[in-house]
Design a protein that fits this description.
Elements (H helix, E strand, L loop, with lengths): L1 H20 L8 E15 L4 E20 L2 E14 L4 E14 L5 E7 L35 H4 L4 E11 L2 E11 L20 E11 L2 E12 L2 H10 L13 E14 L2 E13 L9 E11 L4 E12 L7 E13 L4 E13 L7 E13 L1
Antiparallel strand pairs: 1-2, 1-16, 2-3, 3-4, 4-5, 5-6, 6-7, 7-8, 8-9, 9-10, 10-11, 11-12, 12-13, 13-14, 14-15, 15-16
């Protein structure tokens, strides 16, 4: 608690300094951000159980400053689920802190903590006023990170990224390559400094894409290794009839493959993504591969009103048990009250298939939200 309070105090001092300097000139510190507040209603379709609650779903505070010719710095603080350290609510995190070198449109370089390029949504998932969703396609929904392994589907952090685009007439070829830590991050102070990768491996990844007018498509991939011995111990206790050698769970290769497609035509827009996460445990009886797909079709009813339908599907192999996952059809509307304020409504019907039969349930969700830029 002491560390959280100290960090909050430092943040307040930083914001006080920023407010005093942000308006002194075009090259000085800029402070801006987004937040989204929502009212949600959840109903279990199998029993008479209803839940409803207000929440500050997410707030992102950005600091940006030019720090030299062709150089700029950027910081992103994120707050989720009505964060309160005193009440143990939600989460508060430093999502990004990087410096960017802009050599040309063909070559740019980011150094520091950053969100890497992967598919369409990963880099823009926190721009809540610019997205139609209240609940985003679930592997990108940071407010669900306590119950969904969002960091396993898409890479959350890297530390070096080279990127840019190469124009060829009316077509632009995008590229990004990056390096970061593996998922084996120390969270136990007794094992040394927390936040440090505990292996000698790195995350390597990249995206190759193409843009032509309002058409955009891309292919993404990452590779890293992590220590899964905790998972191995759990499997061995649950399934003593199987043999899970320790060495097969020490440096498990994790590979992500992603594909994205989006298109806008007059009043219509379409976007879709596919993600496959593969693990090489070296044990035939252990299979934990994951797959996720979403597609959204939207139509602008007017200059300010947008309607959309979307479908999400996620599955995870849990051999030697069985597959589990969920399917979510959803629809929603947005109303742009001004350039800075957007009202949203979204309804979803989520069906869960779980390893535990008690989790095999269908839930109805209805949300109203206001999303604000400042």
């Amino acid at each position: 608690m002491r560390y959280k309070t100290t960090f909050a105090a430092l943040l307040l001092l930083l914001l006080k300094f920023a407010s005093a300097t942000a308006q002194t000139g075009p090259g000085d510190l800029r402070v801006f951000g987004y937040f989204q507040a929502a009212l949600g209603h959840q109903q279990d379709a199998t029993i008479d159980r209803k839940l409803k609650s207000f929440t500050l779903q997410q707030l992102n505070l950005f600091l940006q400053k030019d720090v030299g010719q062709n150089w700029s710095a950027f910081i992103n603080f994120e707050v989720a689920n009505s964060y309160s350290s005193q009440r143990n609510w939600g989460a508060f995190s430093l999502e990004e802190a990087w410096v960017n070198y802009n050599r040309s449109k063909q070559f740019k370089l980011k150094l520091g903590l950053l969100t890497p390029a992967f598919n369409h949504l990963n880099e823009i998932k926190n721009r809540t006023p610019l997205l139609p969703y209240i609940i985003r396609p679930v592997v990108y929904e940071s407010s669900f990170s306590e119950v969904v392994d969002t960091d396993e589907f898409a890479p959350q952090r890297a530390f070096v990224q080279a990127y840019g685009f190469i124009p060829m007439r009316a077509t632009k070829w995008d590229y990004a390559i990056y390096v970061g830590n593996s998922p084996s991050i120390n969270t136990d102070p007794r094992r040394g400094v927390t936040g440090i990768d505990t292996t000698r491996t790195f995350l390597f990844g990249g995206r190759l894409g193409v843009r032509h007018g309002f058409f955009k498509a891309g292919f993404s991939a990452t590779h890293d290794k992590f220590d899964a011995r905790v998972l191995r111990d759990s499997l061995q206790m649950r399934f003593p009839q199987f043999s899970f050698p320790v060495d097969q769970f020490q440096n498990v290769a994790q590979k992500r493959i992603g594909a994205d497609l989006s298109y806008m035509a007059e009043k219509w827009f379409f976007e879709a993504e596919y993600i496959h996460v593969a693990y090489d445990f070296g044990a035939a009886q252990a299979d934990f591969d994951k797959r996720f797909f979403y597609a959204t079709l939207g139509y602008h009813l007017s200059e300010r009103v947008l309607a959309y339908v979307s479908y999400w599907d996620a599955h995870e192999n849990l051999l030697p048990v069985r597959e589990q996952g969920f399917q979510v059809p959803t629809l929603g509307f947005t109303y742009e009250a001004s350039e800075m304020v957007v009202f949203k409504v979204q309804s979803a019907n989520a069906h869960f298939d779980g390893v535990n039969p008690e989790i095999d349930k269908t839930y109805n969700y209805t949300y109203c939200a206001v999303s604000v830029r400042f």
